[in-house]
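go over my protein:
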Amino acid sequence: MASHRRPKPATRTRVTVLTATAAAAVALSAQAANATPAKPSVKDAKAKVDALYTQAEQATEKYDAANEKLHTLQKEASSLQDQVARQQQHLNQLRDGLGAIAASQYRSGGIDPSLQLFLSSNPDSYLDQATTLDQLGSLQANALDQLQNAKRTLDQQRAEATTKLTELQSTRTELAQRKSEAKGKLAQAQQVLNSLTAEQRAQMQRDDALAASRASSRVDLGSAPAASNYAAAAFRAAQSKIGVPYVYGATGPGSFDCSGLTSWAYKQAGVSIPRTSQEQANAGTRIYSMSQLRQGDLVIFYGDYHHVGFYAGSGMVLHAPKPGASVRYEAIGDMPFQFGVRI
């Protein structure tokens, strides 16, 4: 048989060690829970904020595209609904006309035509009536054809209007999603900024202002001729907005996002270009060599074309850069250049 031994009781020393260890663990856990998280460095915070601003701008351009599509769909849907209403009215008129023809035939007929001639006291009068009946029959057939054609047209217009309204609702949903996405990224960026000390935030602002000042001093407006008279006028309009704040989805004149500035400026020059940077990327002749850029050319940045500005000369661009900043000059090399667009 196996022997059964009682476990040895813990010694006083062992109990003391275990108790001390447990107390230390509790104390360390409490300190960790109550410890204030370390403030991020200005460099790390700037990198996070810039990344979030880039994501916010991507969402903003998608919001702008959805907003433009929404306005177009609203006009198209309204036009289709007007067409449906007019076609319905036309169909009702055709039905009323067909009913009148049928009623006239009913009042004039009901007996075999040969018997009516035999019984008629005035055959000449009857023959005149028979001719009228033939005409009424022809009119009825023609009216019926018109009625059927009008009904087909009405059904087609109703189907188109239904499809357009469905697309309109889908675009409204997308618009809300893009707006929420952009706001979410901006809120995250603000949280990062709020986690900094007042001195760190001030340092970021000083660094940003210094970079903008240096960029402005590097601009030589005479270093590149204007791409055209229209480009020159658009560039001057954009220059007049230096210092105006960036606001997502804004088209001026008191605030802009990147494509809002370029589309507004060209509008002042009498030229209509698309609203979003992705659409503006296809609005003219592409220029892949920086050396061939001229003042007033659009400059497209990033692989998804979500940012656009004006070429200013001296390797500089004039643009609405990001939330928290204003319309200003920056070096073209500060962002991933894709190509220029000459309007």
Summary: The chain has a mean pLDDT of 83. Residues 123-194 form the longest helix (72 residues).
